[in-house]
């Protein structure tokens, strides 16, 4: 089978096309012929070897959708031929075939195509966890979302709007701000040094009840200064680099600085809430119900062939993707 392999950490050209033996599903595994593979920023971090170290060689990727072609011992043979999504693992996804432990595999409802499933498997379930499980967006909440035109940020915007929140989107440039507005955001801001001030202008001086930030270090201080008294800053990634060590007393609002006070800081790793097969299935079923109901759009901005994986990574690195990037097999 064809696969993309990282043999040494580096830039996008570290992704090499290789011919590998077809995998054989071990006991408890499902062999999936991938049709659509999601490309995520964490894949770039695995390729670079930081901040999340991985063992090499590695066939990267964490989500895909396709058809079951074989099962290992202990797996129901009736799964063969089923359309499925699989996500949240490192079992070798940038490939024509992936042997996946069954708990990472979710059968797809009739009519859900592989591209739709791959577009929402990680981004949609992450947004689901962030807005409904780890934190709960309530009607009337002021919610600030960074990278609001991206695949995960855009999903957060849509689910927060569906929950009745007033959503303020933050984007890196005007075109992306427009894209966030099109997703339902009530206001959209192009990121600059005045972010906290502009958030307060839009919230009658209060700030945001929830701030969702996956950038990490570059926007942490501005995000913290944008939170309303008693609100929560939710970190769920560090695509821009890690947050520098800081004094937790800053959250109090009584030791100086520009924080409103009595703030909460919550780091959310969606994988901790999608640890079991039942949790993963329930989350994806909820997300696909959102898609069917029109609450969440399965947005795709770029499609590449498997061997074009380096180009897909470059699109993400240059922040050119306004939605999901897929490898189509």
TrEMBL record:
<dbReference type="Pfam" id="PF08240">
    <property type="entry name" value="ADH_N"/>
</dbReference>
<dbReference type="GO" id="GO:0003960">
    <property type="term" value="F:quinone reductase (NADPH) activity"/>
</dbReference>
<dbReference type="InterPro" id="IPR020843">
    <property type="entry name" value="ER"/>
</dbReference>
<keyword id="KW-0521">NADP</keyword>
<dbReference type="GO" id="GO:0070402">
    <property type="term" value="F:NADPH binding"/>
</dbReference>
<dbReference type="InterPro" id="IPR036291">
    <property type="entry name" value="NAD(P)-bd_dom_sf"/>
</dbReference>
<dbReference type="GO" id="GO:0005829">
    <property type="term" value="C:cytosol"/>
</dbReference>
<dbReference type="InterPro" id="IPR013149">
    <property type="entry name" value="ADH-like_C"/>
</dbReference>
<dbReference type="InterPro" id="IPR011032">
    <property type="entry name" value="GroES-like_sf"/>
</dbReference>
<dbReference type="InterPro" id="IPR013154">
    <property type="entry name" value="ADH-like_N"/>
</dbReference>
<feature type="domain" description="Enoyl reductase (ER)">
    <location>
        <begin position="10"/>
        <end position="327"/>
    </location>
</feature>
<dbReference type="Pfam" id="PF00107">
    <property type="entry name" value="ADH_zinc_N"/>
</dbReference>
<keyword id="KW-0560">Oxidoreductase</keyword>
<protein>
    <submittedName>
        <fullName>Quinone oxidoreductase</fullName>
    </submittedName>
</protein>
<dbReference type="GO" id="GO:0035925">
    <property type="term" value="F:mRNA 3'-UTR AU-rich region binding"/>
</dbReference>
